[in-house]
Amino acid sequence: MFEVECNQSGIELTFRVDETFSGMEWTMLDPSRLLQVLINLLTNAIKFTKDRPQKAITVTIGGSWSRPPKCWNEVTFTDDEKPKTDITEKAEWGEGRIAFLWLKVKDTGCGMTMDEQKKLFSRFSQATPRTHVKYGGSGLGLFISKSLTKLQGGAIGVHSEKEEGSTFAFFISTRLAHPPADHVAARAVQARPVPRRTMTGEEAMQTIKLNVLIVEDNLVNQKVLRKQLQKFGWNISVAGNGQEALEWLKDSVYWRNEKDSSNTEDKHELDIILMDIEMPIMDGLTCARLIRDYEHQGLLAAPSAPHSASTTQAQHRKTLSASSASHERAEKQSLRLPILAVSANARMEQIEQSLASGMDDAISKPFRIPELWPKIRGLVKRVADADTRTKS
After folding, report:
1. Which residues form the Histidine kinase domain (predicted)?
2. Starting from the edge strand earliest in sequence, which strands make up the sheet with 339-343, in order?
3. Closest by alpha carbon to 58, among 321, 366, 258, 383?
4. Which domains does the chain have, with CATH numbers?
């Protein structure tokens, strides 16, 4: 997924499987949210490593049978207290042994001082005021990563030294699961350098035609974003509020109401929703909750045609190059419609509420299209499939 950026910058990207991962090849987890955190960490690692004399990033996956302590392998976790409500106690997680899956991203970037590290993981927080000027970004990614790991019963942390590089790590709570019946044996994964590719990010966006629904009450914002995305050949639809979005969905390929037997060829195709949070008539949070409720009732489901674009367990395995799976919960996740929260006033409570309401990730506006693309790439299955085919 990150071959282009690494190749262009001469970065060696390596994936390793720690020996502690043994016995945890099949677990119950939310693959899309785990992937979002990993994408955020890798995006930052590339950004702060590409101008360094030594350019290397190593991603390591491992596990633990006990909850990692606050200080773990030099990394200090934030909000590491055990949550009051254990998500793994829900019936859907089964009765497998509790395990903690961890991922670590180590880079040879510019590193940070201790004072700079203390400012991380807060809304719109960056190491120094000059970080945005030199590297870009809103500083929202690490805050979202913190919220996502917390929702999964885990925590995120960092260890860094100025001019030496940084190590970001996070863990989530899981339960062991039985492999699918058609699975013969999980293949061992070995560390390997990333193969070379030449396609740029903008070229990648032009190679696949996505169907996007923009839910935004501001007409100017609607027009600007629509024009930006249409230049890539994407099919863009708009809705002025949550209620309009729900009505639009009822005429899309996702709608599964048996009373509506009209030809699916006349239905709107859809890959992802870009959802504003604060809107009149119906806000984005309410709309997202209703969409997830419709999915639970079976009224909304990903189409079975090849153009379907929801997040799947297969995407998670291919992206991490590991055999970790989420079994039944991932099967439900494969029917999930990707929703990206978009807000100009991304308060801490608002981001947490958006994730809790059923949205999959968030981005703060104004944003640049290169900042939006990694978010879409991490949520839309069809994009991940295209990356995999290109790689092979």
Report:
1. 1-176
2. 235-239, 211-215, 272-276, 339-343, 361-364
3. 321
4. 3-176 (3.30.565.10), 201-391 (3.40.50.2300)
